[in-house]
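FIELD: query
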Amino acid sequence: MKTFFCILLAFSALATSALAKVTVSSPSNGATVGSPVPFVATANTTTCSKGVASMGIYVNSQLVYVVNGASINTHWTLAPGTYSTVVEEWDYCGGATYTTLGITVNSQSGVYVTSPANNAQVTSPAKYVATATTSTCSKGVASTGIYVDNKLTYVAQGASLNTQLSLSQGAHNTVVEEWDNCGGAAYSTVNVTVASGNKLSNLQANQGWNSWGQLPPAYVDCSPCTGLTWSTKYGIKSPAKSGNATQFNTSGTTPYGVVLWYNPVIGQFSTQKLPDLDHTLIPSLHNFTYDTDFYVTNVAVTQVLEFDVSMYMDSIGMFWGTQCNHLGGGEWGVLDNVTQQWVSTSASCNLVNGWNHLTLQLQRESNNDLLYQSITLNGVTANINKTYAPFTVPSNWYGITVNYQMDGDYKQSANTTYLDNLSLTYW
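FIELD: result
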């Protein structure tokens, strides 16, 4: 299915000319680490329309690891010492780019945290990457874990961990600890501060929602649409979490019709009294949390539900499209803005009849690339960590929207869903 940013903007997305880039989140340049060393990186290129073919790791000028695709998440065993390492990407057009990292591998017992840095300011969820070694227990490290404010929050088996933790705003004392198979333990303390943000709450109750439809096969914007009808009803008390839910309805006779509802929250046509007329707020924003309760009345006819945040400024468009392809494979997909194609994340999307809870963590990087950080559905977090380039838009579009979309099934069965406690946190 096509997504609907073409409806909002009434123009086609075009590729940008951003440079190819390799972003390494672990290890950091100059870090002291344990072995095996965790290498976590992503790559993107808009100079090659076919994308990134593969990535690799060089250690002291020797290629030691190659993986197909645009991301690396692996551990590589190195003896104690100092190394020059390179993480490189190769695209399908013969191009390449890389990032160089100098690291020191320590042989002493301990816990080596490569992310986050001690006393760092982070966003939530915060990414934790660490390895542990022991020189006193021949049986090795049994497990590693993370304490947050003296409470054990996460445990992984083995001598390494790579996870994301949802942390409340403010300062936190966190500890990464290892336990060996001989009864010993070691730890590293990592103090972090979670950046504060501004929160727009109860967006489902705001009556500034607009909507359009699209029909196959071309999925051209329409309102009204032949064989597709939809409606919205506010102030629903039951089912509701807050007593003020909003009902979304679709029905018709044209299979696989889709309806998008969108709410312009910041910038042009702001429903939240945030027009940003001097264009200072939107350019300062890099992080978004989309959080909502949503009620499914019939999972058997719920083909796809889509939850999006879009951002437009300075002729740049960024559309964080996130869809639960419930009946088409049961996986989450994210939108590649340049190709306008949905990319499967392999993360399961299992909806239940009744209330579901969703949290999306999204980020605009310094070069305006879109980073899909994580999706949390009904308490289960999938770390996505996929990065895509933005697209070009007319210079007169400026704003941020929150979107919700329902896709019809093979016979456009009547379907009703509800949103409640919908919020967007931004900073």
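FIELD: remark
The helical segments are 5-9.
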